[in-house]
Structure formats: C-alpha cells, structure tokens
Amino acid sequence: MAELIADRYSTAVFEAGEDLGKIKEFYNEFTFLKEVFQGEEKLVEVLKHPKISKKEKKELMNNIFGENISQELINFLYILIDKNREGYLVDIIEGYEDLYFDYQGILRVVAVTVKPLKDDAKDRLAEALKAKLNKEIIITNEIDEDIIGGVKLEIEGKLIDGTIQGKLESISKMFKAATN
Prior knowledge:
single chain, about 15% strand
C-alpha cells in the first residue's frame, strides 16, 4: 500500500515538474527535504501526530521550508497533510528520485564491500559500468564485513555477487548437490 501511494504521488509531482519545466528544481528541493526529514526524525513524528491540527502542520511546514523551497512544493506538502499522507513523504521523495534518475539516464548502483571503497576505485567501477550499461552511474558504497572480500553489486533490483562469501556458498551448494 505504501509503495502504491508513494508511486502515485511521486509520479504526479514529476509530471507537474515536467509541465512547469521544474524537474531539476523539484529534485534539488526534494533532496533538501529528504535530508531534513532524515536528520530530524522528530519532525516526521510531529507531522504524523494525530493531535496536531492540519492547520498547525501547514504553518510548521511553511515556517521551516517556506523560504527554501518553491511554492509548488509547499502546496504539495499541504496536499499531503490534507490527505493524511505526510508519513509517506520520504517514500514519495525516493520515488521522485527514481523517476528523475531514469529521466536523466542515471543508474544508481549499490556496491557492497568489506571496507569502504576509495574514490579512485569507485570511479573505475563507475566507468566500467557506464561502458557496459550506457548510462551515467552513481555508486553508493555499503559495508558488510561478512562478505570477506570482493564486491556485491545491486543494480536495478538485480544482484551480481563477486564476493568471496558468495563464491564459497556457491561451492558449498555444488558439493551438497554432488553428494545427494
């Protein structure tokens, strides 16, 4: 249900941004909003609180963001408040990001490694993926000490496992299959 709601609202805002010629502006403003909401979890709690009136929530949004984001996105926040959808804001923003990156031909890749990737390694990986996939690449590095070594890539919901842990699991499965 949450995904459906987020998709519907993010698509509507994206289409409005397209009509207004403000796709990138909305992206930048949504990035700002996401950082604020992820950094201030109490703000999300306040927005979701049933005893705080819609009018108070709107005033709060205007006071906090009125000078930092466009009136269109302030109005969008008001709509979310009116429809009791304010708890979905971060999901909606992430949906908008997906639409924006797709529109720009950018692909987000998660590289899971045992230690943080150095910038030059990230750049080489991004260039190699760009050559193969014909898209701009943004790499996010996540750490998982259980993988022992190598890299696991998550690309558009697909997993490419080049880790030592993955290879050991594969060998283990082969042995189990051979002994059965």
